Amino acid sequence: MAAPHDRRILVTSALPYANGHIHLGHLVEYVQTDVFVRFQKLRGHRAIYLCADDTHGTAIMIRARGEGRSERALVAAMREAHLADFDGFQIAFDHYGSTDSDANRRLCDMIWSRLRARGLVVSRDVRQLYDPEAGVFLADRFVKGCCPKCGASDQYGDSCEACGAAYTPADLVEPRSTLSGARPEVRSAEHLFVTLEPLHDFLATWTRSSGAIDPRIANYLAGHFLGEPLRDWDVSRPAPYFGFEIPDAPGHFWYVWFDAPVGYIAATEEWCAARGETLATWWGRGAPNEPPAEIHHFIGKDITYFHTLFWPAMLEAAGLALPTRVRIHGFLTVNGQKMSKSRGTFLLARTYLEHLDPGMLRYFYAAKLSGGIDDVDLDLDEFAAKVNADLVGKVVNLASRTARWLEATGLSAAYPDDGGLFARAAADGAEIAAAYEDCDTARAMRTIMLAADRANAYVDAEQPWKLAKAGPASAARLQDVASVALNLFRQIAVYLAPVLPAFAAQAGALVGGPIRSWDESQRPLTGSPVAPFQPLMKRVEKPHLDALLAAARAEAEREAAARPPTPVPAPAPPPASHSGGPTMTTPPTTGPDSAEPLAAEPLAPECTIDDFTKVDLRVARIVTAEEVPEAKKLLKLTVSFGGDATRTVFAGIKGFHAPESLVGRLVVVVANLAPRQMKFGTSEGMVVAASGAGAPGVYLLSPDSGALPGMRLR
RNA sequence: GGGCCCGUAGCUCAGUGGUUAGAGCAGGGGACUCAUAAUCCCUUGGUCGUGUGUUCGAAUCACACCGGGCCUACCA
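YS: structure for the whole thing
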């Protein structure tokens, strides 16, 4: 290890695929990585945390097609969602790129030409199933048919779930494309391969002796891949493919797994460009006066061989720095089982954020992760018990039971005799730091909680509440006791800061200011003012967990309902009895409102007041309302903003509101919406209405009586 | 079928050759009342999966078996 403050540490998490939202399983890795990076920064090292969206490949292409938009539109939308989720969980990337970037294209090109120059690229024809209707080659999972061994129907192209037989898609009986239903044909196409066998010795040595990977993994690789000649790696896909076209092989695109890890470097380059640094500082192999940077990859066990064989092979061939360490973790289970949509345990990041504090999950993961590849189980009862006992009962309690006595006086001017408690916990810092360094956060958390236990015992023994009642004679002693307790509290907050950044900030606001350095755990504070105590964390209660699971289940059901590949028929118009207006369909509510509508449609990402004011909402009066006979859902309305300002608006409320009942009533209109040419005329605005899960219908909004057309909503 | 990991108190785990095996949570009893029914003290609870070895000494090492998990499969 380099001198303590001389380390340059580049850290990555695996790139999330732009085909889906972030869930709690992903977050095991991002939390683990973020904790590691925050720890390194707190220790004063130069650490950067880089990640990116993984955007290319067939799955994205197919999904974009299905949604009737471009791949880039899909990818851009998913990026926003990913970033909002990460932000919610306090995952602090130094840069978050995309594999669909200019930097990535250039770097892929660079690495590719170096592979070419070393003669590692070979070309060969591959016979693959082709969907003549969709016009694409089919990956194994896009083909279904009957198992050639046992005849089971509806099996995927690689293996049979019924009898376990393995085969190739071409072996399937009565194969069909899951994209179009067409019968695939076998076609031959040229593919480009990276031949890895020339790097066999290098990989055998590197996996075994570089220290980058756990010996157990090295053994697995040795047995599984390195015990025989390495197979060539197929890195190209014929058009059409969403990705980068290979410059010296027109019509061929780099396979998504080729350009994905290069995204680590591309993100670094973008980060460097923004700060005037050079890429070689991080991915170069070092110089006499500049040793190479440390590179730490955090990944899940499912992508082990990409990161321990292909990736180092690419880096070696390209003359770039090799990973210092590949950290492999297991999967997440919930209540002891795989996350399951039908059980309601498929928990999306944003669903969690709507119900619970992200810090609690960060702590729970930290308390569970010990650096190994075992799966992590999120048992919700255990989660609640652990978070409540440790964070609320022990740590937060320390401040909440003593801070009030120091609001007036601040901390004692000299650190009082505490029987060696602070010094002991300060000495524990070395062990805690070693555990963090090792990604054994479970050990770190255990050690920290022991300090919290000792601190609470101290408070009990000193009985500051009695000192408080004893009056001025005991004031100095009271201040001393509380000063010790708050110092021990802040010391713990420093140790927990990598895991609980928001909590650490609040602790700093209470006493001592922002926590900037690990060293702050080594010296007690004296004389500092103490702010009024604010609640730092709420206990997890059963209803919170029940609501979370209910929301997850509702989400899964909503998604399942939206999934059928055949176009969903337009909803049939409801019975005419619904058309009398909003009052008829809304029974008075007595008990608590259902959680269903919100659960089914989680809140959108946060926006600013500026975002909101871009939308000009006005009160308007409906002047005319008429049926559009050919339209299934639309009514044609003329609305007035007062005076002679009127607009023609098509509103999707047919069947829920009789036209004649609408004339004269006040509604809310998006007044500055861009005009939209529709089949039946131009719509010059949008009438605001509510709809969602839990009840059918579309509900118009009405202002309180007295509002005038043209008034703005704000 | 093969490989790897795990099996310690009701639960989650620490302890990996050396005094009567530990912690947190849960259970029981008590104290306190400052604190988010939080905290503190005492306490119940384990033939350390089973068996056989190695050793002066085994939860810890070896072998076999039983049970669980992960990975991978007519190739390690």
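YS: worth flagging: Residues 564-592 of chain A have pLDDT under 50 and may be disordered.
IM: good catch. Also The longest strand of chain A covers residues 121-131.
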